[in-house]
Amino acid sequence: MKRKSCCWVLMCAGLLGCQANEDSLADYIEQVTLQARKEIVPRQPVVPFEAFLYVNTKAREPFELPREAVTQNQPKAKKDCWQPMPRKQKDPLESYALSQLKFKGVMSNGKSTSALIQTPEGKLESIAKGQYIGINHGKVSEVNKQYLLIKETLPDGLGCWNQRSIKLALK
Fold this sequence. Notes:
By secondary structure, the protein is α+β, with helices and mostly antiparallel strands. Helix content is 20%, strand content 26%. It has three helices and seven strands; from the N terminus they run H-H-H-E-E-E-E-E-E-E. The strands form two sheets. Strands 4-5-6-7 form a four-stranded antiparallel β-sheet, with no helix packed on it. It has a three-stranded antiparallel β-sheet with strand order 1-2-3, with no helix packed on it. A hairpin with a 5-residue loop joins strand 2 and strand 3. The radius of gyration is 40 Å and the shape is flat.
């Protein structure tokens, strides 16, 4: 009983504490409207666009560097540097970039080990040590269970060639 009366007393006290704001909403909106600043910033005048008609003449194209600048920026080609031996025959996997190929497995007959490579079309190709792979004249130098070691031959842009080793990991 005591709890019920205590709850009633607390609820009544809470309700007495709530008093509605009896100010007029219309008066408040009018007061805020009067206090608001109304400044209009004038716009900048619009400058009319004038199109320029380009007529091709014997002069250079507008987005090309002058010939003097192009020849000064070109590094000099080296004459005595390493060149790879030219090859005519292409292996089937030489038409794909290494990033497109996936190393899927290893096969061995006891004497030699070859790798299974998946092409972007999903076709599996077998490749062994000494065969070529990739568009950068890559030659397989090692086949093992974890990776395929490939020596790529890349042009340096000056007429010479550099070699680098790439590992194609088993996926």
